[in-house]
Amino acid sequence: MSILPNIISNHQTPPPSTKTRLILAFLLLIFPILIIVKNYPLISNSSLLSSASSFSSQILSFSDSTTCDIFDGRWLFDNNSEPIYSPGSCPFVEREFNCIKNGRFDRTYLKYRWQPYGCNIPKFDAMKMMEMLRGKRLVFVGDSLNRNMCQSLICSLKMFKINQLSRSRDFHSYHVQDFNSSIIFITAPFLVQQRQLPGRRDTLRIDTMEGSISKYHDADFLIFNTGHWWNHNKSRNGENFFQEGDSIHYKMDVGVAYTKALNTWANWVDKNVNKNKTQVFFAGYSNTHFQGGDWDTGGSCDKETEPITDEKSLTSYPLSMQTLETVISRMETPVVYLNITRLTDYRKDGHPSKYRQPGSRGGFQDCSHWCLPGVPDSWNQLLYASLLLSLEPSSNKNTNLVLYFYTLVFLCTLFFKNLGILTFKLGLVVKY
After folding, report:
1. Phi, psi (5° rounding) for residue 182?
2. How far apart are the C-alpha atoms of 383 and 223, rounded to whole Å?
3. Residue 325 resides in a domain
4. 85-106 b/e (C-beta count within 10 Å ≥ 16 → b)
5. Assigned domain for 342 exists
6. Which of 57, 185, 261, 327 qualifies as a cystine partner to 206, CB 3.0-4.6 A?
């Protein structure tokens, strides 16, 4: 028989002091609160994305509890696979990307779909995509590969009423009327400012962002890219081209200038972008497949009709993308790295080649950009999957946080209701 009831009945021990009760209450309550804070930090728009330290690629957890890197996979031939929009049907595709309309007769390159190792990615759903973009602005900033991606996205949404508000060499603007949504492309191949000095050739201000970007710092989605213009040809071998402040460097290595420019971009994002409102993406380097020369020295790819299947034939991961990962890892603003580099390396069959314009059989071939429909549609599928996944976990976390909160309230109610009895018994046990 327990002696505790006898102890309680035979000894009139005074109840613990108010101070003791408060200490016990604090200790019993702080533990579950710490658990909630640890597992469910405050959620903002920026936390819907991968953290700045998780920069190498977007790691996604799907509803079947599978976790995988959606940018690590392979291209599968699927004879039943059809592009989201029919070749030649989209009025927003510029002539240089409209390969089938320009005379390309083989369509096998449209039968491949991207398959990550270890998980499946959702098919692109235009309605769900537009719901995520409702009342928002999505802005692409970068070179013509980002323009390739922008036009792919517009064509994937063309079943909705889209007004093309502006289209020039440097600026494209579209408005999806029923969703009050805007999709914009800004040409900024270096991201930093290229300027013409009076009486001199142009220079690249690697310490100053391209001015036209500033007015879109508050867009809901910003998708940056750069890469193809960072070569010795485009940068005049680094001779009297790169400028910092009022100083024009007589000679600077292109890789050094590229790193400085990326840091300028990163600092601009950290200082000007509200990470609680704007989601930032950076699209990786899109591989080229020139054979027998470069674009201006007879390089070609028109004989390629299927992707690379042997991984040993892939190129090494670019040093420029390793630099990008390092820069992103040091940023305060979360950035989702759309790591399309390896994905595009396989697809030597997807370029416009000699079909960059109608009846083109001579001149240079385009083995840098991509036919539309084509490979960039997969980039937007991965963007879509990233956006979907970023929203679903936050919803689950919020739901669980509410459940934890009400459970805590219930426990607190019981606790304070029985606090006097509990502390009294604890005091007796300690004493005896």
Report:
1. -120, 140
2. 10
3. yes
4. bebeebebbeebbbbbbbebee
5. yes
6. 261
Per-residue pLDDT of the chain (432 residues; tens, 9 = 90+): 444 444 344 445 455 566 565 665 566 566 555 555 444 443 333 333 333 333 334 445 444 445 789 999 999 999 998 999 999 999 999 999 999 999 999 999 999 999 999 899 999 999 999 999 999 999 999 999 999 999 999 999 999 999 999 888 889 999 999 999 999 999 999 999 987 666 667 899 999 999 999 999 999 999 999 999 998 888 888 899 999 999 999 999 999 999 999 999 999 999 999 999 999 999 999 999 999 998 888 899 999 999 999 999 999 999 999 999 999 999 999 999 999 999 999 999 999 999 998 875 667 899 999 999 999 999 999 999 999 988 764 444 444 554 555 455 555 555 555 555 444 444 444 444
Site of tokens 């009423």: 161
How far apart are alpha carbons 314 and 292 in whole angstroms? 17
**β-strand partners of 162:** 176
Asked if residue 77 is part of any domain, the answer here is: yes
Beta strands in 118-228 (DSSP E): 137-142, 162-167, 171-176, 181-187, 192-195, 203-209, 221-224
The 3-state DSSP class for residue 113 equals strand
Q: What's the structural domain count of the chain?
A: 1
How far CA 166 is from CA of 175, 179, 277, in Å, comes to 10, 18, 26
Q: Which residues are catalytic?
A: 144, 366, 369
pTM for this entry: 0.79
Q: How far apart are CA 308 and CA 295, in angstroms?
A: 20
DSSP secondary structure letters along 349-399: T-S-BTTSSTT--SS--B-SS--SSSHHHHHHHHHHHHHHHHHHHHHHHHH
Contact 124, 384 (CB under 8 A): yes
For 251, the domain range is 45-396
- Whether residue 8 is contained in a domain is answered as no
